Every structure is written in structure tokens, then in C-alpha cells.
Amino acid sequence: MPPDSRSWVTVPAPVRDLFKLFPLRVYAAEELPSRAPQPTRVRPSLYVFALDGDCARPSFNPSCLKWQTFLRIAGVDVDLIPSNNHASPSGALPFLLPSSTNSGSSPPLTGGKIQKYAQDNATKKIPTIESNRQEAYRSLITQSIRPAWLYSLYIDPSNAPLLKTLYLPPSPLLAYSLHHTLVAAASAEILKTTRTPYVRTAQLYADSATAFAALETLLGNDAWFFGAGSPGLFDAEVFSYTWLILDETLAWGKGGELQKSLAGFKKLVAHRQRLYEWCW
Known about the structure:
Layout: H1 13-21, E1 45-48, H2 62-73, E2 79-82, E3 95-97, H3 112-120, H4 131-155, H5 160-167, H6 172-194, H7 201-219, H8 233-245, H9 257-263, H10 266-279
Parallel strand pairs: 1-2
Antiparallel strand pairs: 1-3
Helix pairs in contact: 2-8, 4-6, 4-7, 4-8, 7-9, 8-10
InterPro entries: Metaxin_GST, Mito_Protein_Transport_Metaxin, Thioredoxin-like_fold
Domain Metaxin glutathione S-transferase: 211-275
Domain Thioredoxin-like fold: 62-159
């Protein structure tokens, strides 16, 4: 048997003769092209929950709105980018990509790092408040107001259409699954925060009303919390809930317990409007 016939592919004689005249030349492997440089960012980019076309407005998510507002208080101009948790390196929004002037990539900033970035790059004065005092009152928001917010938006059936608009995908199958996931996550966070065996709706709203009353007393007749001459981080955090709770464009459901409660605290309502006008 001829040697060539043992190959699993028989090369025709004319082609074989051609390669004998012009043998293949194997070139050395070339290096892969360098990665294309990242485009420079003239302004920082803040990735938040936002509806398309609403980037000039406050975010509909309290955590995002807190930092969006604080950056505005500090006079740091940012480009607002609608996003979702899956796009975040930490798995949660918001995150900030600082401005860049070269091809080097800047690490994304979250939480306290956004605060430090805002303070380091501020063009407006940010009041200095004793951290211990601020943290003591901040617990009113995290322990009493946030659980009521979570129940109102994620669990209250009357707000299911709003939840769908803000967070659920258009696909009914995906929306059904994600809706149950969000409700379960909200319930778990409420139980963890309140340290109760089950969700007590009436108690949640009662606790939030008590927190609103305490914040109203703290604000008193001052324009900003802690008697500061200009708004600070605590003002932004309070605003991140008061603005959204009373935001009529969100089309809240018929229950409205949280809305009715907050509307009765006129100084907080005035603070809400004052800070909106300051920042927007």
C-alpha cells in the first residue's frame, strides 16, 4: 500500500506535486493585539436604578437616591446611568466610576467610598456633623422607616403594579419568578431588622410614624438637620425616603398608610421640598 494512502484524507497527486514545488511556510505566532483603551470619562458615572428617560430626576431607589443627592449637595457633577444589580461589581446599586483622563481603569466605588469621593471632590461646602450623633438618629431610618418602606413597596398587594413598573421585566414568566424573589427578600430583611417571628403590618407603620415624629423634633425650626448651614449626608438620607414616599409620579396604591403618615409631619415635608429645590 502506498504510504500516502494510509492518510485519512488522500491528497490528489496534482495538489501534492504543487506543494512539493511551493512548500507551506509556517510563520511565527504574532502577539495578540493590545486591548483597546477604555474611553476617557470627563465626568464620573453613577450607576443607579432609573427608568429610561428619567436620568435627570431623582432615582426611584432610596439607596441610589441617597448618594445621588449627596453628590449634588457636594457639587459633584455626574452622568447618571440606568443600571441593575447584575451590572454592579458588588451585586448592588449604586456604584460610581470616577472620571478618568487616561486609558487606565478606575475601580468602582460604593457606599462610604462614594462619600469620600464626594468630599474630596466637593465644590460646595459640606457640613461636618459628629458621627456618633448622626449614627444614633440614622437608626431611626434603618430600623423603623426602611422596614415600612419595604413592606409598602414589595409586599403590599396594592403596590404590585408599581413594583412591576420599577423592577420587574416585561416577560410574565420572568416577572413572576422575580416578584416572588423580591417579596421573599423584603420579608427576610424586615424580620431580620425588627427581630420578630412574622411581619406585623400595623406595627411597622406605627414604628415609622414614631420615627417621623422623632426626626421632625430633631429638625425643629432649622432648615437642615443638626442646625447646619447647608444640607449634609443625613439630610440626603432622610430625603431619599421622604421624597419617594410622597412622590405622586410613582402612582402608589390605594392603601397609602406610609404616605398619609408622612404627610402629617409638615416640617419634614417642607425639608423634602427644600432639599429638592437645593439639588434639582
